[in-house]
């Protein structure tokens, strides 16, 4: 057997190494088989006994060698190995991972109902059997908040627009509809969503339940657009809630993390569809401080992109296009090709340094470089040495130059303009904290960034760009990180990031360890001082028991955890909609 032979060869190598060390060091004891035998010859009965013991050990050893060298297939890892049995990956085992590739589960239960009646039957049966069916959307949450091995239910096949009230600008949809699909279907009515997150592939049920947000100090998180919804609950069946009908549960369940019921239908308050003018320009922290209050109050949408180890701050504003003035007449100073050239040059230089991948002509395959977008180039650059601070600084400086040459205006509909290319696989942590009021910003948001940048440089964190800062108005959803009853309150959202630009397991593990060290430092130095709490789709459960207990206590001070758990007890007493993350973050009093 191959494995037996390998083990034997390893043992011979060990003995050879032992004798070599003994010759080099006389004090090192030499292995001598005679030391383990007695000098007088044993009686024949003892010899027979030892012989049969030896045969028995030989048979057992052969059996073990056969077991461990049996040719299991690579996909047999998902079943517990049994002696002399072949364990292939079952046909009914579904692999579900989040978009960033940081969380993955395998489950035999992945249900996709096509109607609310079918969903009701699934939830009812699962509750009777006490079988978990955790609601999961498009899997876009960086922390995999909707995943569990025990079983999941996904509403991708419940994706219809049910009704549109053009006069009131309201739309009722099945919760499985994706944002882009919804926007495409209602634009003929001249309406759209009030705000958007960075991407458009989220299911409406998921984007609402985790308290997702866009940017704009006058615009609340997306859950605030919900005016009513239908929940399919294990204990009470299908219930319809709104601010008029059971308002206490409505404001608790609107950002309910999928733990109070499966969101089946949602009615959203929309706005008139408008063309926006996006203005992108490069600034610095000194100028940002001078103009920050004006930027927040005068722009419908605004965000800052900070580039670590540089003074560059990319400012992106979006406002409705003036019907009187029309689109801006300004032409960009540089073409896209010119903006990318500095990044391409660094890519060629880095290829030569790290891989030597140059052709006889002295340059790598040109068509490949030309076809790459900025974010693809950045991923390829970072993949060469992702944890080398000096290399990351070079990439960041190239990014700053790219943005300097990308300054200018762009006109388009809100769903086209407000998106953002986030790049490839990544770890991300985003925190939300109060930043004063729209009429009187506290400037704590900029202080947070300054401390973060100082921390990065002091600790030599290989932090890539961008560090994204956005703002929202408050939400009345009680589980929202931006919860407040004061309409004028504003909240800042800051995201730190580390990309996973390689599929090499060892390298991804190293990046993951560095990212969590980075995140832990920001947590220790900043979160408490600024009352910052992580986005529900980006919070990670600590493995350390003391850290977990501290997080649970902190969440309980900010959020109505007791009310949330009580509602879970009433609506989902068997916890069939829960998963390990929810149980860790919100343990019941009995569990504690």
TrEMBL record:
Coiled-coil regions listed in the entry: none
Pfam families given in the database record: ALO, FAD_binding_4
Superkingdom per UniProt: Eukaryota
Cofactor names: FAD
Gene3D superfamilies xref list: 3.30.465.10, Uridine Diphospho-n-acetylenolpyruvylglucosamine Reductase, domain 2
Pathway the protein contributes to: Cofactor biosynthesis; L-ascorbate biosynthesis
Record has Zinc-finger as a keyword: no
Domain FAD-binding PCMH-type: 102-273
Keyword list, A-Z: Oxidoreductase
PANTHER family per UniProt: D-ARABINONO-1,4-LACTONE OXIDASE, L-GULONOLACTONE OXIDASE
Protein name: FAD-binding PCMH-type domain-containing protein
């Amino acid at each position: 057997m191959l494995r037996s032979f390998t083990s034997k060869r390893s043992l011979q190598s060990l003995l050879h190494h032992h004798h070599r060390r003994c010759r080099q060091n006389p004090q090192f004891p030499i292995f001598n088989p005679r030391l383990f035998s007695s000098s007088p010859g044993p009686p024949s009965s003892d010899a027979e006994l030892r012989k049969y013991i030896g045969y028995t050990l030989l048979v057992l050893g052969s059996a073990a060698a056969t077991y461990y060298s049996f040719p299991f297939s690579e996909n047999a890892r998902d079943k517990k190995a049994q002696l002399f049995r072949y364990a292939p990956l079952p046909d009914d085992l579904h692999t579900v991972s989040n978009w960033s590739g940081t969380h993955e589960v395998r489950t035999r239960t992945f249900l996709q109902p096509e109607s609310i009646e079918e969903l009701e039957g699934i939830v009812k049966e699962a509750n009777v059997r006490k079988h978990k069916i955790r609601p999961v959307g498009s899997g876009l949450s960086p922390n995999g908040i909707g995943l569990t091995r025990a079983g999941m239910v996904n509403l991708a096949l419940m994706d219809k627009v049910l009704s549109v009230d053009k006069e009131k600008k309201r739309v009722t949809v099945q919760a499985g509809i994706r944002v882009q699909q919804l926007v495409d279907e209602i634009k003929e009515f001249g309406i759209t969503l009030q705000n958007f997150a960075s991407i458009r592939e989220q299911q409406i049920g998921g984007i609402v339940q985790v308290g997702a947000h866009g940017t704009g100090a006058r615009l609340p998180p997306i859950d605030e657009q919900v005016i009513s919804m239908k929940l399919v609950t294990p204990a009470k069946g299908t219930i319809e809630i709104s601010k008029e009908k059971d308002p206490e549960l409505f404001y608790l369940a609107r950002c309910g993390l999928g733990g109070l019921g499966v969101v089946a239908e949602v009615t959203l308050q929309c706005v008139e569809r408008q063309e926006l003018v996006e203005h992108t320009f490069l600034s610095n922290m000194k100028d940002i401080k001078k103009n920050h209050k004006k930027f927040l109050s005068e722009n419908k949408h605004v965000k800052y992109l900070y580039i670590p180890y540089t003074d560059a701050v990319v400012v992106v504003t979006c406002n409705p296009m003036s019907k009187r003035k029309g689109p801006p007449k300004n032409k960009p100073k540089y073409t896209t090709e010119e903006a990318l050239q500095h990044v391409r040059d660094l890519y060629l230089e880095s290829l030569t340094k790290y891989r030597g991948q140059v052709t006889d002509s002295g340059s790598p395959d040109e068509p490949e470089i030309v076809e790459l977008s900025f974010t693809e180039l950045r991923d390829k650059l970072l993949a060469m040495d992702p944890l080398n601070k000096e290399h990351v600084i070079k990439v960041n400086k190239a990014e700053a130059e790219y943005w300097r040459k990308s300054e200018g205006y762009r006109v388009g509909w809100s769903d086209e303009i407000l998106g953002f290319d986030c790049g490839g696989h990544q770890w991300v942590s985003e925190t939300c904290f109060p930043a004063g009021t729209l009429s009187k910003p506290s400037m704590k948001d900029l202080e947070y960034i300054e401390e973060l940048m100082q921390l990065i440089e002091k600790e030599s964190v290989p932090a890539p760009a961008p560090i994204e800062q956005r703002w929202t108005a408050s939400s009345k959803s009680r589980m929202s990180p931006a919860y407040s009853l004061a309409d004028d309150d504003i909240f800042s959202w800051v995201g730190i990031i580390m990309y996973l630009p390689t599929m090499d397991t060892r390298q991804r593990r190293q990046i993951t360890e560095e990212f969590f060290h980075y995140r832990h430092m920001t947590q220790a130095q900043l979160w408490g001082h600024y009352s910052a709490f992580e986005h529900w789709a980006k919070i990670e459960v600590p493995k350390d028991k003391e850290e977990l207990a501290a997080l649970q206590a902190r969440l309980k001070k900010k959020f109505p955890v007791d009310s949330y758990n009580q509602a879970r007890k009433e609506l989902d007493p068997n916890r069939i909609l829960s998963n390990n993350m929810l149980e860790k973050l919100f343990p019941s009093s009995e569990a504690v």
